[in-house]
Each structure stands twice: as structure tokens, then as C-alpha cells.
Design goal:
Number of strands: 15
Shape: elongated
Helix content: 25-40%
CATH class of the largest domain: Alpha Beta
Radius of gyration: 32 Å
Distance between the termini: 69 Å
CATH architecture of the largest domain: Alpha-Beta Complex
Number of domains: 2
Strand content: 5-15%
Largest sheet: 9 strands, mixed
CATH topology of the largest domain: Spore Coat Polysaccharide Biosynthesis Protein SpsA, Chain A
Length: 557
């Protein structure tokens, strides 16, 4: 695909006056000057190319068709007439983008428009008559689509300032950041348009590619932050809708039924997913748990503890690992820069930890990734800084892996504890089912261990865009990589319930959005709630049977 031929600027002659509107244009000040005729000086492809190459916020142009075409791409579009005055788009031109115009005429004062746009990144696509006025208005992130050629812009000294460069695109020139050339070249079938400045991919400098990569990473990060904000907002709206429904005319009877059902569910219903089953009572650990011994050739185990302001619990978390006496344990703490007593507690354990780091990070997944990059164990796990392992867990898990080399991932049953280490419930898990991971995640994260080999096959990192469903997303990747996953018949870990707990605080906001997004990724479409409920019903029935048998004492773990 080749770009259209460049537009040449003819000198002034008696037959071609240097000033005044050309044929088909409306003279400024006439009754019809609120419409822009088809004064086509740029191809819409070029606008879309530049918009894809660099992050831009605003589009300013004097061509109606360009303005309408650009509205889905830019959040803000300014349409000006040839004299620089603002115009309104017709109703039939309405599109998904926004249109903002200034109330006062701005003819002859484009620098003032640039000042009003502030720090916003602007794509300017105006006529050649405005380019001298724009010289002082181009910000460091702005891009100018010019009618002039590269040679003319060089002569007028409109380019080559800072990291800007000039590119001949066949319809004029582009002045903008240095990363434009690779992207525009890729869109034009791998060849940068313009013979004078074209470069093959092999000739692009490392600096240009590094700048393009940096800008791309910045754009991805902004999109990720925007997506997280939207997920939180959706969760807040969902929670507000539930609260409003509870205030209707049937709110009181419905509230009574909900409370009754909530009281009966821990006794007669499904207990998976419930974080409180009964009043606190002393946690009883079978003696055989403490008598567990590791295999003779004990495999090394790496455990990463991500932490942030959990100074009231982290000492009990570390003790639950170190007090097991496992001979080959590598304990790594990644703290996100806690402002409470966490660092004081960690100082007391410094000689027993393989590595400790405290400082700002990109969230829990980023902290876990940093910790695992420093680890070397054959078996891997992470333990949140408010949870705990039950006695004998490491020896039990190591022995199982040694006796079952075909197994890649294991997990077990869960104990629910309060802030004082008292038991408030238990999750008795049915046998593992790979299919259930396509619909929901009930795997107790603090009980999960895996081999380093399957970790590397699945990408060797946590997906950092997830903050709530990161363990579910990892399990799905394990499964898709061919891992054999087994639920062990033993209580392995304790999950602490408290007011500032992440799972409780985020389930109504970030949690629902991430779970819906993960289901959409797995199934390739939107998955409705009732469909999920039908899919997980057999799994929950198996749980109810095992849970009742355990509570009756007919089976033990």
C-alpha cells in the first residue's frame, strides 16, 4: 500500500492568487462560514497511524471529515474553520468521541489555545497558514501533521527540537516524538513512507526502539490503571444496587429470610465460600501432625511471604514456617514498604530468613514475582503475611511429592481462624476437579505447593494485572500447561479472617470484576451467573457429603 502523492505548494501568480479562499472554500466571515468544505489535506490513515504510535489526548483540525473520523479515537476533538474559529459538528456527525469547542473566536491566537489545553498531548492537523503560529505551541508530547514538505519545515525550523523528528508521509510531513518512524513504517507494509527519510527495520537505531518500547509500556500501564479503576467502580455500583434492593417494600421480610438462611447454611448447607462457621473456639491439632517427618532426601522448599502493614500477624506467619523444623526451607519476605511495626518484627527474624526486602512495589503479584526470582527451591509456595501453615505441613507435602513424582501441584483442606488464632470454621475440600477451575476457584491458596518445573512451563511469573484472582489465574495456567493437580487428605493451612483482610475487602469491588474477566478469557465469551452456578453444583454436592462425613467423625484428616 503506497501513500498518496505529496501536495505541492504553487507560487503566487496572477492565475493563482497567494491569498483568499480556493475554489470550493468558504470565505471567513461569510454567512456560511460555520461549515468546513472538503479541504482534504491529510489522509485519515495518517491520523490513525500517529494515534496508534504515541499516546495523545486531543485532536485539533480544520477538516470536518477528519474530525468525524477521529472522534472514536480521541476523547476530545476541536474543529476549527480556516480562520481558526471553533465550529460545531452537525447532528448526523455525532459519534462516540467527545467534542469540545471554545466559545470565543481564537483566530490568530493558536498559542493561546495551546496554553488552554495545558499539559494535554495534542495532535495538530491545521492548514499551512497556521503552522508559523504553532511553532511556540507544540508541547513535548504534541504532534504536528503538516501540509509542508520536510525540506520546507527544515527551512522554517519547525522541527528537530528535542526528541522530535521529521517524517515525509507523502501528503506532507510529521513533526513529533522519535518513536513515530517505526510504527508508521510498520503500517505502510514495513516501509517508512518518503524516500528521503525511509529506513529499513534493520537500520533503526537502538535508541528509537528503546523509546518506542518505553512509550508502549507507559501506555499499557495507563490502560491497566484505568481498567482497575473501572473494575472498582463496577464493584461499588453493584454493591450500591444490592443495598438499594434491600430497602424496598419487601426489605424487612427478605432481610429476615437472609439472616435465617445465613444461620442455617453453616449447619445444613454449603460451607465452602463462608468465612465464619461457628463461634471462636480453641484450635485443636492432631498429634500426628506434629510427628510428621520429611523424606530422607528432603527437597528444598521456597516460600515467599508478601507483606504490607501486617505487623500484628507476620510474626505468627513466620513462626508457622520456621517452627516446623524442616531442613531445607528458603523463606523470603517481600514487604511493600510497611509503615507499621512490620520492619521491627522482621529485624528480629533477619538471621533466619533467606532474604528480606522492604520498599514500594507494584502490588502483591509483583512482590511475589520479585521473591520467586530470588528463590531456588524445588518446591514453591507463597504464604500471605496474615495466614499460617499447620504443624508438619512441609514434611507432609515434601514426602508426598517424593513418593508421587507424576504430581505437579498439591493443596489441602483449610482451617479458618480469627485474630487470636481461634478456629471459626473449616473447609473440607472434595477431590480435585480440573473442570471446576473454568468456573470458580475454591482452592485454599495458603495450602498450595507446586514444583518449579510446572512454574517455568506456565510462564514463571504471576500475572501482575490481577490483584484478587491472581491465585486462580495461576491455577488455570498450571492446568493449561498440563499439570497434574491433587487435593491432599489433610488440613495444611490456616486462613485468617480480620477486618483489613484483602479477600474480604475486595470481593465486592475488584474481586467480581477480575473473576468475570477471567471467566471470559477461559470461555471466550461472557459467562452469566446462573450458568456458573449450574456448573459448580455437582462439585458443591460432593463437598457437602464429605463435610458431613467429617463432622460426624466417619472420616478424619
Amino acid at each position: 500500500m503506497q501513500p498518496p502523492a505529496a501536495t505541492e505548494h504553487a507560487p503566487a501568480t496572477p492565475d493563482a492568487p497567494a491569498t483568499g479562499p480556493s475554489a470550493g472554500e468558504t470565505a471567513p466571515g461569510s454567512p456560511d462560514d460555520q461549515r468546513v468544505t472538503a479541504r482534504r489535506v491529510l489522509d485519515p490513515r495518517v491520523v490513525r497511524m500517529v494515534a496508534s504510535a504515541v499516546p495523545l489526548d486531543v485532536f485539533v483540525c480544520s477538516d470536518r471529515e477528519l474530525a468525524v473520523d477521529a472522534r472514536p479515537v480521541f476523547g476530545e476533538v476541536h474543529l476549527l474553520d480556516p480562520a481558526g474559529r471553533p465550529l460545531q459538528l452537525d447532528d448526523e456527525d455525532e459519534g462516540p468521541g467527545g467534542l469540545v469547542t471554545h466559545g470565543d473566536p481564537i483566530a490568530g491566537s493558536l498559542p493561546r489555545l495551546g496554553a488552554e489545553l495545558g499539559n494535554m498531548r495534542v495532535l495538530w492537523a491545521l492548514g499551512a497558514e497556521h503552522e508559523p503560529s504553532l511553532l511556540g505551541s507544540l508541547g513535548p508530547g504534541d504532534v504536528l501533521l503538516s501540509e509542508a514538505s520536510v525540506a520546507e519545515l527544515e527551512a522554517d525550523r519547525l522541527g528537530r527540537e528535542g526528541d522530535r523528528e521529521l517524517i515525509d508521509v507523502g501528503v506532507g510531513a510529521i513533526v513529533g516524538p522519535g518513536l513515530l518512524r517505526p510504527v508508521i513504517g510498520d503500517i505502510f507494509d514495513g516501509e517508512a513512507p518518503g524516500a528521503a527519510t525511509a529506513e529499513s527495520p534493520a537500520e533503526r537505531s537502538d535508541a528509537e526502539l528503546a523509546l518506542a518500547l518505553e512509550r508502549s509500556e507507559q501506555l499499557v500501564e495507563r490502560l491497566r490503571e484505568r481498567n482497575e479503576d473501572l473494575e472498582e467502580r463496577i464493584g461499588e455500583l453493584r454493591y450500591a444496587l444490592k443495598a438499594r434492593r434491600r430497602k424496598g417494600p419487601l426489605a424487612r421480610p427478605a432481610s429476615v429470610l437472609r439472616r435465617l438462611r445465613a444461620r442455617l447454611r453453616p449447619i445444613y448447607g454449603v460451607r465452602l465460600g463462608l468465612l465464619w462457621h461457628h463461634h471462636p473456639r480453641n484450635l485443636k491439632i492432631p498429634d500426628r501432625y506434629r510427628q510428621e517427618s520429611p523424606p530422607s532426601d528432603a527437597p528444598s522448599i521456597s516460600i515467599v511471604v508478601p507483606s504490607f502493614n501486617q505487623g500484628g500477624f507476620i510474626d505468627r506467619t513466620l513462626d508457622s514456617v520456621l517452627d516446623q523444623g524442616y531442613p531445607e526451607v528458603e523463606l523470603i519476605v517481600q514487604d511493600g514498604g510497611s509503615s507499621d511495626e512490620t520492619l521491627t518484627v522482621l529485624d528480629a527474624y533477619s538471621d533466619r530468613l533467606a532474604h528480606v526486602h522492604s520498599g514500594p512495589d507494584g502490588g502483591q503479584a509483583a512482590a511475589i514475582n520479585s521473591g520467586f526470582r530470588r528463590s531456588s527451591g524445588e518446591i514453591m509456595a507463597w504464604l500471605n503475611s496474615d495466614d499460617a501453615l499447620l504443624p508438619g505441613t512441609l514434611a507432609y507435602v515434601a514426602r508426598y511429592f517424593a513418593e508421587h513424582p507424576e504430581v505437579d501441584v498439591v493443596y489441602g483442606h483449610r482451617v479458618l481462624i480469627d485474630t487470636d488464632d481461634r478456629e471459626i470454621g473449616r473447609w473440607v475440600m472434595p477431590a480435585h476437579d480440573d473442570e471446576i477451575l473454568s468456573w470458580a476457584d475454591y482452592v485454599p491458596q495458603e495450602t498450595m505447593f507446586w514444583r518449579r518445573g510446572i512454574w517455568e512451563q506456565a510462564g514463571a511469573q504471576m500475572t501482575e494485572e490481577y490483584r484478587f484472582a491472581l491465585d486462580w489465574e495461576l491455577l488455570v495456567r498450571f492446568r493449561d500447561a498440563g499439570a497434574r493437580i491433587v487435593r491432599l487428605p489433610r488440613f495444611l493451612g490456616a486462613f485468617r479472617i480480620h477486618e483489613e483482610q484483602k479477600s474480604s475487602a475486595q470481593v465486592e469491588t475488584v474481586g467480581h470484576g477480575e473473576m468475570e474477566r477471567l471467566r471470559r478469557r477461559i470461555h471466550g465469551r461472557r459467562v452469566w451467573g446462573r450458568e456458573t452456578q449450574r456448573a459448580i453444583r455437582p462439585y458443591l454436592r460432593r463437598h457437602m457429603i464429605l463435610d458431613k462425613l467429617w463432622r460426624l467423625g466417619l472420616i478424619r484428616h
